[in-house]
Amino acid sequence: MEQKLRALEEQAKQDVNEAQSTDALEKVRVKYLGKKGELTQVLRGMGSLSAEERPIVGKIANVVRESIEKSLDQAKLHIKNIEMTAKLEAEAIDVTMPGKETKIGRKHPLSQGLDELKDIFISMGFKVAEGPEVETVYYNFDALNAAQNHPSRDMRDTFYINDDVILRTQTSPVQVRVMEKMKPPIRIISPGRCFRNDTPDATHSPMFHQLEGLVVDKGITLADLKGTLEVFVKKFLGDHTQIKFRPHHFPFTEPSAEIDATCFKCNGDGCPFCKKSGWIELLGAGMVHPNVLKNVGIDPEVYSGFAFGMGIDRLVMLKYGIDDIRLLFENDMRFLNQF
Ligand code: DAH
């Protein structure tokens, strides 16, 4: 029995020496010391020994077990060290390798322009309102005092979903939606997408962006409109910019005007950019038509207001010197990376 145990010890140590990994070592441990392990089997067979032999063999068996455990522990430590060294070598970072370039995104020029416009109007006390891009004919035309036969209502100009629903052609319907919900004083801007049945070219796109403005209160006059737009234009295009009002017609304002600004390239002297006129067309505006106020239940005898609407794409193109509106929507990174 003793011989058998010693042989087992010898065999176990050899196996330990041959094991190359923690996994292999664990297998050796199970092979000898596990529940069905070889040493365990031997110990189980002790029942057949005589009473004198049993303690002697038991002692030897314990010594053998401890000896195997010890060599297992030592080998384990050794292998762990080797494995750790290999792991560290494999994971070593070569600090001389060139790094991976992280591309930092940036805002689309339209978003940059819009942020600037919003900042200017928010600094003047305006709040930002939103309205739907899929709009009803009522909000886009009727409530804004557009006659049944107004040319912009034509199928050739407007995308109709059905007789009553369209893609909005302007941000002006938000004026009506806001006035239905809020009572004066009202001071809002509303930026957003608009759609018209236009064939794309350098200055037209079937989808484009506008920014609407609306102020309604007691005693609002054309002077307030002029003052507001003057502050806006100077902030957006530069301090020496001047504006002029040209008479115009919009169904929802009376009187209506188109507003031009002195060309920010030549300061009004005339250059190729402003087609030698010294002026650049900026936006439409006017005093809110009494019919529009009546349509939302605001008494035009008590309240008055002004409104304006500008093409964001156009303003951004002017500001950044972009000569084709299609560039804004093609998402060509070579173009966008310039801003
Ligand atoms: N909605 C007009 C357009 O698309 C622009 C406009 C003009 C808006 C005058 C206004 C305004 O609020 O008062 O051409």
In CATH terms, what is the fold-level topology of the largest domain?
Answer: BirA Bifunctional Protein, domain 2
Query: What is the typical, i.e. mean, pLDDT?
Result: 92
Number of domains: 2
Give start-end ranges of low-pLDDT stretches. none
SSE ordering: HHHHHEEHEHEEHEEEHEHHH
What would you call the structural class? alpha+beta
Separation of the first and last Cα atoms:
88 Å
What is the CATH level 1 assignment of the largest domain?
A: Alpha Beta
C-alpha Rg (nearest Å): 42 Å
The overall strand count is: 9
In short:
With about 350 residues, the protein is α+β, with helices and mostly antiparallel strands. It has two domains: about 1-90; about 110-335, BirA Bifunctional Protein, domain 2 (2-Layer Sandwich). Helix content is about 40%, strand content about 20%.
Structure report:
It is a single chain. The protein is α+β, with helices and mostly antiparallel strands and 339 residues long. The chain folds into two domains: 2-90; 109-336, BirA Bifunctional Protein, domain 2. It has helices spanning 2-18, 22-33, 38-44, 53-91, 109-123, 137-140, 173-181, 222-237, 290-295, 312-320, 327-330, 333-336, and strands spanning 127-128, 134-136, 165-167, 186-195, 207-217, 243-250, 253-262, 279-288, 304-311. It has a seven-stranded mixed sheet with strand order 1-4-5-9-8-7-6, sandwiched between helices. β6 and β7 (253-262) form a beta hairpin. α1 packs parallel to α4 (53-91) and α5 packs across α10. The termini are far apart. The chain binds 3,4-dihydroxyphenylalanine (DAH). 3,4-dihydroxyphenylalanine binds at residues 170, 172, 212, 250, 253, 284-286, 307-309.
